[in-house]
Design brief:
mainly beta; Methylamine Dehydrogenase, Chain H; 6-stranded antiparallel sheet; 4-stranded antiparallel sheet; 34 strands
């Protein structure tokens, strides 16, 4: 049985026309953010558009990845799986290394398998990589005990040794810190980490000396059942002034229809204090709303945001829109400080054969300002459970001279044994224009314990 709303992730920061490996240097460390441009890897380019399955998970090495990939300077890919591993249930952190000769298989290494014995369980989002090779991430712990953690994985001192996991912070589930972080992390130039739980926005500051205790600060506590947002599942994005932007799946307007009780979601900003020691300030920039014409502006933004040079925010909703299959939207800042942000729908998805539906992962830009993403449903190549919802797509949105955006579906995921399907995360773009990602299902449908019909998920590359 497939879940109704898969977890997803958000790219840390991409500036339009400036797509490059992003690193923030500091006295402590520099972080390579979750979306970087890969070097040209060893997979040969081919004419046309084709998808290659780089690795199919089998359960023991992880299963059901719901997060984006990151890459290091050598072209190694890093990611997480929500389930699987040595314990069979609690998830993994993995590395996928390119072959030394074109055409040979990639090598998969499980860097850490969670056990739910104080180390966390069920990582649902991507990772951060610093210049020392340490990896940072979150575990959601949903239905596995506890309320989630922020962790660090340190590489071994010698080749072949074990990676070391350190829990930097364990959430208590109280009003003072929140619970179930599922949106991943971003970092600032000082090495502070930022993230969200379902009920809060938080900062985690590094110790003055290595090995010391990290300091947790709650920057904002969402207010359920008010005009404020709540239930945030997306990674934040940070601008040059230190403002944080994100989305909540619910909250906002409470009018009629679907939004009458829980709300249709929000886009928010959390701004640093003007003076040291002051409080951070949250502003709701946009509330998705219900009206007599349906959910024409979209509802339930599950993924995060990206930011362009002009300060415009881009994101998606997994429901609503003019055609009911979700939207890609742009939010433009006001001309005056007290003005309202303006939403523009760039694309309406529909449950039809030539389009995707239910975008839940983050978007990315290329150098020309084109947007790329994936949808969890939709497409013309799959009928699941006798219903033509589709098994997902990879799409491109391109701006036109007239102001409209044009969608091109680059790939339809089929429901075919041993082929990846149902992508629940954003994509990674390399310098050759290839798109790298994960699917929650598909891949090896004979070696996935307990779920051979759907498969354990896979890592893929789309060559255009």
């Amino acid at each position: 049985m497939l879940p109704v709303a898969p977890h997803c992730e958000l790219c840390s920061r991409i500036l339009a026309q400036e797509v490059c490996a992003v690193s923030f240097c500091s006295l402590r460390r520099s972080f390579l953010f979750a979306i970087v441009i890969l070097p040209i890897l060893l997979t040969p380019a081919v004419a046309g558009s084709s998808l290659t399955d780089l690795h199919a998970f089998n359960g023991s090495d992880g299963s059901n990845p719901a997060a984006n990939l990151i890459a290091d300077k050598l072209g190694n890919l890093y990611g997480t799986t929500e389930y699987g591993g040595a314990g069979g249930y609690y998830g993994t952190v993995f590395r996928l290394s390119p072959p030394t000769r074109p055409g040979d298989p990639w090598t998969t290494t499980v860097l850490y398998a969670f056990t739910n014995t104080g180390d966390g369980a069920r990582p649902t989002d991507g990772l951060l990589l610093d210049d020392a090779g340490d990896l940072f991430g979150t575990t959601s712990d949903s239905n596995a005990g506890g309320y989630g953690e922020v962790f660090e994985l340190t590489p071994p001192a010698y080749s072949g040794g074990a990676w070391t996991e350190t829990v930097l912070y364990s959430f208590s589930g109280s009003d003072s810190d929140g619970s179930y972080p599922q949106g991943g992390l971003i970092a600032d130039p000082s090495g502070n980490l930022y993230g969200t739980t379902q009920a809060s926005v938080f900062q985690l500051s590094p110790p003055a000396t290595k090995g010391g205790q990290w300091t947790f600060t709650q920057l904002h506590s969402f207010k359920c059942c008010t005009a404020d947002g709540f239930s945030s599942y997306a990674r934040l994005v940070r601008d040059r002034q230190g403002n944080l932007y994100g989305t909540t799946e619910m909250g906002g307007f409470y009018n009629t229809g679907y939004c009458a009780y829980l709300g249709c979601g929000t886009v928010f900003e959390v701004s640093p204090p003007a003076t040291k020691g002051g409080s951070w300030t949250e502003s709701v920039l946009y509330r998705f709303k219900s009206n007599v014409n349906g959910y024409s502006d979209g509802l339930n933004p599950f993924g995060g945001l990206i930011l362009d040079r002009a300060g415009n925010l881009y994101g998606n909703t997994y429901g609503g829109g003019a055609l009911g299959g979700g939207t890609v939207f742009q939010l433009s800042p006001p001309d005056q400080l007290s003005g309202a942000w303006t939403e523009t729908i760039l694309h309406n998805f529909a449950y039809v054969s030539n389009d995707g539906a239910v975008p839940v992962g983050n978007l990315i830009f290329d150098k020309q300002g084109n947007l790329y993403g994936a949808t969890w449903f939709g497409g013309n190549a799959c009928v699941y459970n006798s219903t033509a919802y589709g098994c997902g797509t990879i799409f491109e949105l391109s701006p036109t001279q007239g102001g409209a955006w044009h969608e091109t579906v680059l790939y339809f995921f089929p429901r075919v044994p041993s082929v990846p399907d149902f992508p629940a995360a954003g994509l990674l773009l390399d310098s050759a224009g290839r798109l790298w990602g994960t699917t929650q299902y598909g891949g090896n449908t004979t070696a996935c314990p307990g779920n051979p019909a759907n498969g354990c998920g896979a890592v893929f590359v789309l060559t255009r």
